[in-house]
Design a protein that fits this description.
The protein is of the alpha+beta class and about 190 residues long. The chain has three helices and seven strands. The chain has a five-stranded antiparallel sheet with strand order 5-4-3-6-7. A two-stranded antiparallel sheet has the order 1-2. Strand 4 and strand 5 form a beta hairpin. It is elongated, with a radius of gyration of 19 Å. The structure holds zinc ion (ZN).
Length: about 190
């Protein structure tokens, strides 16, 4: 099975371009470097933008949930002038907002790298399970990649529940896009998840 990394459509036979969203599919697992990214500004499939911001973004989803719960509990307390007890949902609210902002900011950086980042040839460094995180009893996979800027190597990583990412192996060359004024905003092209 080959999964389109932009919109998750599945194909039995590999194709270079997704029929659903038009995004390019990564080359089949192996050691080959795919087609280079098109010149910036690149157009991103809208389903992918939604996935990066919301459906696959743990921080924005959980942050939004905490913010909502905090508001639901804090607002009636404040309306009844229960200042001190409202501190607890207040902390929930603050934590939720900061988590949401973090998720939104990292999504924006990643999307900026896809849209206007500079393309360089990098490589997969290692692929493994991220035992430090757990959601519903499952550990996500972590893919670490390196890419050169001048004579320095930078590191980027992807943490995902998408198992296609783990089909990559260390040493495999990949295209990496990064923002020249902030290389911490980077992404593998085509995306791994
Ligand atoms: Zn697609």
């Amino acid at each position: 099975m080959h999964t389109c990394p932009w919109c998750t459509t599945e194909y039995v036979n590999w194709q270079s371009q997704c029929k659903q969203c038009g995004g390019p599919l990564p080359p089949p697992p192996g050691m080959k470097l795919g087609e280079p990214p098109p010149p910036a500004p690149r157009k991103l499939p809208s389903t992918y933008v939604k996935r990066v911001r919301w459906t696959e973004n743990i921080a924005t989803l959980v942050g939004l949930g905490f913010t909502g719960i905090g508001l639901l509990i804090a607002v009636p307390m404040l309306a009844n002038k229960l200042w001190l007890p409202a501190l607890i949902p207040g902390f929930f609210l603050l934590g939720g907002v900061s988590m949401f902002r973090h998720g939104w900011k990292s999504a924006a950086g990643r999307l900026r790298a896809f849209k206007s980042g500079k393309a360089v040839e990098g490589r997969i460094e290692r692929v493994g399970i991220d035992a430090s995180q757990q959601i519903n009893g499952r550990h996500p996979s972590r893919v670490v990649y390196h890419f050169p800027i001048g004579d320095q190597w930078h590191e980027g990583q992807i943490i995902t529940f998408d198992t296609t990412a783990t089909l990559r192996s260390s040493g495999q060359p990949v295209w990496v896009l990064y923002n020249e004024n902030d290389p911490n905003e980077n992404a593998i092209y085509p995306p791994l998840s």
